[in-house]
Amino acid sequence: MAELLFFSGTMDCGKSTLALQMDHNHKARGRRGVLFSSHDRAGESMISSRLGLQVPAVEVFPDTDFWVELTVRQTMGARIDYVICDEAQFYTVDQIDQLARVVDEMDIDVFGFGITSDFRTRLFPGSQRLIELADRVQVLQVEALCWCGKRATHNARTVDGVMVVEGDQMVVGDVDQPLDPDAATSAEEQGPGPGPAASGEGRGPVVGYETLCRRHHMRRQTARTSPSLYLNEMPLPFEPKQRESGRI
Questions:
Q1: pTM recorded for the entire structure
Q2: Which of 88, 98, 154, 230 has the most CB atoms at less than 10 Å from its CB?
Q3: Would residue 210 show up in a list of annotated catalytic residues for this protein?
Q4: Structural domains in the chain?
């Protein structure tokens, strides 16, 4: 019997890697599926992992209708045993309802992968609907880590290195920014080539993302703004022992 499964977690916990692994495993057993994604880091119509793996996929737009999409494919003679939906947090509520209908009426397994909550700790509409409808919700076992070393439970958005809790729910940003502000400035100044972007002229705010534990998310304390990381790099104040007169 087909199921609707939702694999959830923060950034950097291996959701896309698991999606590609599941696709590989099912194909190895002779099953045939369709891969969907939305706003992947590698660009449109792609599922990519931070480990460097990437596979072509069908891009999901706000007007995509999964029921129609899969019905047309089956009408054309395609066999569909499963569907993999990466970046499912960006899907609309109606699209999640369509996926549930695909499971129930087409008897096709649907595996959804996505972030549960946004940088404000609010549930994404797509993720919320998946939690409400999924036969099973599984939190990925690979734990992303906060800069303090604890398990990361929340995603944080930064603007020029400072954490923010207001703004649009979906904004493209970098998740691999250097911790050293001087290194970041140097990279920005080097740029891709000559022109305003290379010199930093006209550069807008730099948006980034980071995973944090609840404690540091509530404190709005990111890796770049945490004083403890820099204190740990300072040498301890050890002074050479002075020999006292007549004593060693």
A1: 0.69
A2: 88
A3: no
A4: 4-139 (3.40.50.300), 154-231 (no CATH)
